[in-house]
Amino acid sequence: MQARLARRVNAASVVLGAVPLLILAARGIWWDLGANPVETLTHTTGAWALRWLLASLAVTPLRRALRAPWLARLRRTLGLWAFVYAGLHLAIWLLLDLDLDASSLVSEVTERPYITLGMAAFLLLLPLALTSTRSWQRRLGRRWVRLHRLAYAAATLGILHFWWLVKADWREPALYAGALGLLLSLRWAHLGRRAGGRRPAVV
Ligand code: HEM
To answer: What pLDDT, in 10s, does the model give residues 116-151?
Structure first.
């Protein structure tokens, strides 16, 4: 019963993750990407990378609250979607903004702080995506859990990257920062309870 529910929730998250991408592709096919298509592509993929990353981090507190260990797979699927969108975001920028010019890449990364922050966020997501399989989880044991805490750092850098580039309306990055703050508080509260000796049922 639970295994079937887990499979269904996971399948739904696989489909859900693809939706913004399909909408973007459809808009591209219909020439409906606005006055600046490259900007639309960069912004949409960047925004969804951050949204899926935060959604993946929300799975653990949800799993604890519902006492539903089978939700663990959802965190992995959403995290992988975050990586896919971040990869596309980077690829679009490299290909359409920089024309794959290596010297521009170096100067952009070293001279523009928001690009440095975005690149750092991406580089943190990379080992998480590469070690997201069960075999890596088994191989790394406790170290896997520690490594995957980097997702919080990647989200922090992703939000700073976004905040840095907004010119006037900071409401959206502020919303993401609030969501991350809430997730971190839930995590610290959980760690505090654990340190206090009350081991929760779902770890
Ligand atoms: C891999 C290195 C990265 C590069 C080179 C990069 C570059 C960019 C650029 C050029 C923009 C548009 C800036 C403008 O408006 O002029 C942008 C926007 C954005 N990026 Fe990145 N980025 C990177 C990684 C990331 C990552 C890992 C995330 C999320 C975790 C992210 C999230 C965002 C968001 C949320 C926006 C703004 C979207 C919006 O306006 O709605 N970026 N990025």
So the answer is: 999 999 999 999 999 999 999 999 999 999 999 999
How far is residue 108's CA from residue 105's CA, in Å, rounded to a whole number?
5
- Which residue's CA is the closest to the ligand 1 atom numbered 19? 46
By residue count, the chain amounts to: 203
Q: Give, using CA atoms, the residue closest to atom 40 of ligand 1.
A: 43
Residue nearest atom 32 in ligand 1 by C-alpha distance: 46
Ligand 1: centre distance to CA 114 (Å): 8
Given phi > 0 = left and psi -120 to 50 = alpha, else beta, which region is 62?
Answer: alpha
For 35, 96, 148, 184, the CA distances from 28, given in Å and listed in that order, are: 12, 14, 34, 37
For the segment 13-55, what is each residue's pLDDT rounded down to a tens digit?
Answer: 999 999 999 999 999 999 999 999 999 999 999 999 999 999 9
Global pTM? 0.93
